[in-house]
Amino acid sequence: MAARPDVVVLGAGVSGLSTGIRLVESGARVLVRTAAPPAHTTSALAGAMVGPNLSPPGDPQRAWTDETLRVLGAEPLPGVAWRDGTLAARPEGATPSFADQTPGFRSLGDDERPAGFGTAFTVRLPLVDMPVYLAYLLERFRDAGGEVRVAPVASLDEAATSAPVVVNCAGLAARTLTGDTGLHPVRGPRIVVRNPGLDRFFMEAPMAPTWASIFPHGDHVVLGGGQRRSDDTTPDPAEEADVLARCVAIEPALAAAEILEHRVGLRPGRAAPRVEAERRGDALVVHNYGHAGNGVMLSWGCAREAAALALGGTPPA
Ligand SMILES: Cc1cc2nc3c(=O)[nH]c(=O)nc-3n(C[C@H](O)[C@H](O)[C@H](O)COP(=O)(O)OP(=O)(O)OC[C@H]3O[C@@H](n4cnc5c(N)ncnc54)[C@H](O)[C@@H]3O)c2cc1C
Known about the structure:
The protein is an alpha/beta fold.
């Protein structure tokens, strides 16, 4: 980039790239500085299911999710496939009252629910094959004139020497950059197996530390899940066996599936995402981090809001 950027975005995960695209496609000169390329971010480890957002009406996360669903539904995008699948919970009567607004909603009867589940319904949602989707976002950002440098910043003040506006999409690393003690790592396994022929997804409501999630993406299936407050990213064979057992209980065809990958990601846990602006000296800093287990689902909505804050130039009252 020959001229000084208007905006420097920290992070090349789904938050940083989506926000960078919104900014660069609005005409801004945008530099993304990242500690790692997109394929080595937490975002690359997500399953990833988009929606439904079952937070209460009026919660901003509902509108952010709706924006992501709108973008992913507007045109075919690499890595994104709309699929039918089942959402289930162990207790009876756990269907949120507004779940029936989700496309394809149908409540499953007693004889259709998997054993051990008191609540289950089908919906139609986007599944995102994250390595493919992140490569698309990166290409779209660059094609629009954006630049990406693998050059982490040591502080927000250092970032502000690159551009008058800084957008902080550093995920869990925002903890160090901002001192936000509300941000914490939530460990989750990603186990990829060869697809034995599944095309429907399954997701158990994450009401406990472990659950079953089965996300087919063509030739492979991403299995999860688990949530544990830990910053240990070492794959654990016992955890792998546990995930497989829970998923096989839902889809017996997975029992013989070849395991292709086992990695562990750290979700940027926070009570709610932080999307807001603040002044730091002469610089405007816009934060867009802390999306916990929903960063892909919230990505386009948060990107739009963060870009508006960055382009408006003044923090909201
Ligand atoms: C196993 C698993 C399954 C998941 N499944 C889903 C799902 O189904 N649906 C869903 O919506 N979400 C899911 N998530 C959550 C989702 O992955 C995260 O919420 C999302 O990836 C957060 O994206 P991000 O861009 O904010 O952060 P990240 O992807 O962590 O990106 C942070 C970026 O900041 C960069 N960075 C770090 N330090 C610095 C620095 N000092 N200077 C500059 N850059 C820096 C990093 O290199 C990286 O590029 C899942 C997560 C896991 C682990």
